[in-house]
Every structure is written in C-alpha cells, then in structure tokens.
Amino acid sequence: MLKLTNVCKKYKNSNVYSVKDLTFEVKGGEIFGFLGKNGAGKSTTIKSITGIIPFDSGTIEICGHDIKKEPIKCKLDIGYVPDNHAVYENLTGKEYVNYMANLYKVNKKDAEERLAKFVKLFNMPHAIDNQIRSYSHGMKQKICIIAALIHNPKLWVLDEPLMGLDPQSAYDIKCYMKEHKKQGNTVFFSSHNIDMVEKLCDRVAIINKGRLLEIIDVPKFMKTSKVSLEEYFLNLTKDEISINNQLAESNKEEKKKGFFSFFKKKKKQEDDALEKILENQNKTDEEDKKIKEVLEDMKPSKKSTSKTTKSTKTSTNTTKTKTKTKTSINAKSTKTKTSINAKSTKTSTNANAKKTSSNATKTSTNANATKRKTTKSTKE
Predict the structure, then answer these.
(1) Are 85 and 141 in contact (CB under 8 A)?
(2) Which of 45, 161, 241, 366 has the fewest CB neighbours in a 10 Å radius?
(3) Strand (E) or helix (H) holding 45
C-alpha cells in the first residue's frame, strides 16, 4: 500500500537532514502509527508522502505508483487530513465537501450518500450548511476528515488527527479509523498520544532526528514487553538523544579549535589593516602641517596690523574733531546773526517811537496856537 525506500530530505539553508535514509513499508488493511518527538521529521515525511513537498532522493510508492513519476494517480488514492485546517472558510461545509468530491471525480450520487453518512456519524447536521469560518476547532477538524474520506481513499493519512478535539469527537474518529481498516484500506497517522497508539495501531514506527529507530508490532510488544510502549519510546529516543549530544559536543570542540585559528588569522588581518591606517594617518598629519605653514606665511604680520589699526583710529578721531569744530563754528555764527538781527530790530523800533513822539509834540503846539488866535479874536 505504502512503501518508502531511502528517502532523504534537507531543507534549503540547512546543514541537517530532516529525513535521512528513511525506509519502511505499510501493508493494506492495517493502522500504522508514526511516533517521534517534535522536530523528529514526522510532518516532513507525511508531506513528502502526500506530494506537498519534494524530497531529495529515494522513492515513495503508493498502491504501486511512484509519487514522482505518477503524482496524480498517487494522490487519487490518498485522503489527507493536515494539522492546520487548510480549508476555504467562506464556503459552507457542504460546499467544501462537494468541491473536494469534484476534484477526486466522485459521482454525485456517491458524494451525497457519503456526505449524509459522515454528517450523521460526526454529529454535524446543524452546521453543515453554515460557513466554515463560524466553526469551532473541532468542527473544522471534522469537516477536513469528511472531505478527506469523500472519495473513499485506499490510504488515509492524518497528521495529529485528535489535536484539540473533545472526547466524543476523538472517539468518533477512532471508531471510523477501525471501520476504514475493515474495508481493506490503510490508515497512516502521526501522534504524540502513545496510549491511543497502543490501543489503536497494528504497528508503529519510531523516528528521531530524521532517522528510523525501530518498527514495533504493537500486539506482540504488549504481550512480551515488561514496560509500556511509552516508557520504551522515551528510553529509545533518550539513548539516541544522548548519542547525538556526544556527537554535538565533539563537533563543538572541533568548532572551537577552528574558531581560535580563525580568530588568530582574523586578528592578524585586523592588525595589518590598523598599521596601514596609522601610516596613512601620519602622512595626512605631515601634509596638514605643511598646509598650515603655507597659510601662516600668507597671513599679514602683527606689527603692520597694529599700525594699520592705529592709523585707522587716528583718522577716525581727526574726522570726529573736524566735525565737532564745524558744528561749533556754525552754532556761533548762527547766534551772532541772531543777536545782530535783534539789535537792528530794537533800533528801528526806537526810531519810530521818537518820530511818533515828535509828531505828537508838533500837533499839540499847533493846537495851542490855534486856541490863542481864537481867544484873541473873541476879545476884540
């Protein structure tokens, strides 16, 4: 049903393989668990199986078809439930499922019958006609599962299928996993819930740091092992982690040696560069001194400057004295003219007064003579 052979995957700008030489086979009619810690390579493996991301080397076959050579045929046999609810939220639940049915070329009658069955199974009749954006986390997970099963895939792939589900929804999904297995199909899923894996899986693969550690037959293991699957998993991955830590420590020592040699080389380069900078600085200082000397020669001496300043001050004072003298002379001439004019005015006024008094005297004399003549004539 599913076969991986020497699959390797390394992401861009990374020196570590996310998946390295991964080889295992999943049979038809079984539930196969995929266990590993965070960063172990589970999601990378699942995305390579479903054709979402390319892998670097190795082969992946689904129902006898190579995923690289015949991707469409492989994907028609896969039903994939991601861990991030990648759905069109503006569509209703029914519209989304019908859209997926059309992509997988499911005829209308089969699509309607399967949709009705899953809606009843997952208790969604009240929500199937609502927009997906109004769904809760668990309801979005359910609609993704219905869409993945609408074409009745031979290989049902789930990445953390029970994350965030309530107990009833989780139970319903586990029940349908068993039902899908009974129909001769295969269920392949990753999980951190080891207790569920113990109860549900036929076989389980344990992966760590991109490498397959072991494939366990779960029923046989439960009968023969003195420890639980959880304890076995933790011990197995712990041993692997300690080995990786030792390798990491040795790599650190090598890096330290390389770092110190690199540091010495770098320091020598910096010292050489500093010497060149100091040489250039000395040259620049000498040039600056020469320029200053030339500028000093071009400046006038202090004595000539003082003489010029004194002569300037003397001329300024002379000019001020001349201006004051002219002003005083003009003021004196103006006063003299004013006094002369005043005297002439008084003299003319006195002359006129004298003339007026003499005329009055004459008039009075004439009047007296006239009176005398008149009295004489009167007496006669």
Answers:
(1) yes
(2) 366
(3) helix 42-49
Task: State the average pLDDT over residues 174-200.
Answer: 92
12 — phi, psi (to 5°)? -60, 145
List of residues 6+ apart from 166 with CB closer than 8 A: 138
3-class SS of residue 153: coil
Q: Residue 324 pLDDT more than 60?
A: no
Q: Are the CB atoms for 160 and 34 separated by under 8 Å?
A: no
**Which CA distances in Å does 204 have to 46, 116, 214?**
15, 33, 8
DSSP string, 52-114: SS--SEEEEEETTEETTT-HHHHHHTEEEE-SS----TTSBHHHHHHHHHHHTT--HHHHHHH
Task: List CB contacts of 213: < 8 A, sequence separation 6 or more.
Answer: 206, 207, 236, 237, 240
Q: How far apart are the first and last CA of the chain?
A: 193
pLDDT for 347 equals: 47
Provide the token pair at 362: 């004459």
* Model-wide pTM > 0.70: no
Q: How far is CA 31 from the centre of its chain?
A: 44
What is the per-residue pLDDT for 296?
74
pLDDT at 327: 52
Mapping DSSP onto H, E and C, the string for 21-33 reads EEEEEECCCCEEE
Q: Encode pLDDT of 335-350 as tens digits.
A: 545 454 545 545 444 4
Positive or negative: CA dihedral 211, 217, 220, 221: positive
Are 246 and 56 within 8 A, CB to CB?
Answer: no
Tokens representing 369 are: 């003579």
What confidence tens digit (pLDDT) does each residue in 101-122 have? 999 999 999 999 999 999 998 8
Q: How far apart are CA 274 and CA 373, in angstroms?
A: 144
Helical residues (DSSP H) of 183-301, grouped into ranges: 194-200, 218-224, 229-298
Q: What is the dihedral of CA 224, 227, 228, 229, to 10 degrees?
A: -70
Asked which of 74-78, 133-137, 242-246, 290-294 is least confident by mean pLDDT, the reply is 242-246
